[in-house]
Design a protein that fits this description.
The chain has 84 residues and is mainly α. It contains three helices and no strands. The chain has one domain (3-62). It is 76% helix and 0% strand. Helix 1 (3-30) packs antiparallel against helix 2. The N and C termini lie far apart (55 Å).
């Protein structure tokens, strides 16, 4: 899986999380038992997608499909004392 496909998949999952958030809002506005059920299902979908996205990003980093910010890895780890 290439870097482009990984990015596309991540964006699609984030959009799916946003859609589930919208369905939860509709359930909140509807109210009652049906609205409560819709909000609960939306919450389950959002949590499941978020956990799956986190695991996918971790797996992608492990497989080398994505890489961390190299600039931060090159930062100095200790400072030299200032001489007077």
């Amino acid at each position: 899986m290439g870097v482009f496909m990984t990015e596309v998949l991540v964006v699609l999952v984030i959009l799916a999380i946003m859609v589930a958030l919208g369905f939860g809002l509709l359930g909140l506005l509807k109210g009652g038992k049906a609205g409560s059920d819709r909000m609960f299902k939306s919450l389950v979908i959002r949590v499941s997608l978020s956990i799956a996205l986190f695991l996918f990003v971790m797996f992608s980093g492990y497989m080398g499909w994505i890489q961390s910010n190299i600039v931060m890895l090159d930062a100095p780890t200790k400072q030299t004392p200032v001489q007077k």
